Amino acid sequence: MLNLINRYPALSVCSADLQAMLDTLIECYSKGHKLLICGNGGSAADAEHIVGELMKGFRNPRKISKKESDAIMALDPVMGKNLVDKLQEALPAIALDGHVALTTAYLNDCEPLMCFAQQVQGYGCEGDVLLAISTSGNSQNVLYAATVAKAKGLKVIGLTGANESKLSAIADVCVRVPQTETYMIQELHLPVYHWFCLKLEETFWK
Is 79 exposed, middle or buried (0-12, 13-18, 19+ CB in 10 A)? Predict the structure, then answer.
């Protein structure tokens, strides 16, 4: 964390919550669970960005295990060689802003503000984590998702701006970066999630 704080000193006020966020994610992945992520607008783009960093190598390639390599090679030595050389281990993560057929059907047929909540209902399992990103901390669709997550036994991590909010009240951990204007909040969200993606990779692939 020291490197993060040195580059972004303003985040020093969040240091305890940053560590709690990381500990929660490490526990999730250590026990074989997954991360669900939701947000709107720029925060939806951040959700997709995070998935891209977790589902493949962030700084370093993550070779698949020998057991997996042997199983692939046994099935097809020709395709297997390419697969074994190129596949990487992943930390499973799903951005809830995608899935166009599901989301548009739910938006049209049901309740637009509950679309993230429906996906948490479908994907979420006890022990998983929901990362709920909202610069205000009061986005209703994100709050619906957080409520369902808590009810199903997921941990909820909030990533917001400086102000206390409905999300900070319900979340198990909430990182409130010290800005109140949307674009400035988002400017600090990016180094936060790059930091935890890096630390997770260092934890599981030493």
Answer: exposed
Which are the contacts of 105, defined by CB distance < 8 A and separation ≥ 6? none
Q: What is the DSSP string of 77-126?
A: HHHHHHHHHH-B----EEETT--HHHHHHHHHHS-GGGHHHHHHHHH--T
| 147-184 residue pLDDT tens | 999 999 999 999 999 999 999 999 999 999 999 999 99
Quote the mean pLDDT of the chain: 97
Cα gap 30→144, rounded to integer Å = 27
**How many residues would you count in the chain?**
206
Identify the CATH class of 2-55+90-204. alpha beta
Report the distance separating Cα 63 and Cα 69, nearest Å.
9
Rounded alpha-carbon distances, angstroms, from residue 35 to 47, 50, 102, 107 = 11, 10, 19, 23
Number of H helices, E strands in the chain: 10, 5
Percent of the chain's residues with pLDDT above 70: 100
Listed by start position, the domains of the chain span 2-55+90-204, 60-89
* Residue 32 Rama label (left phi>0; alpha psi -120 to 50; beta): left
- Residue 193 has which token pair? 């999630």
pLDDT, tens digit, for every residue of 59-69?
Answer: 998 999 999 99
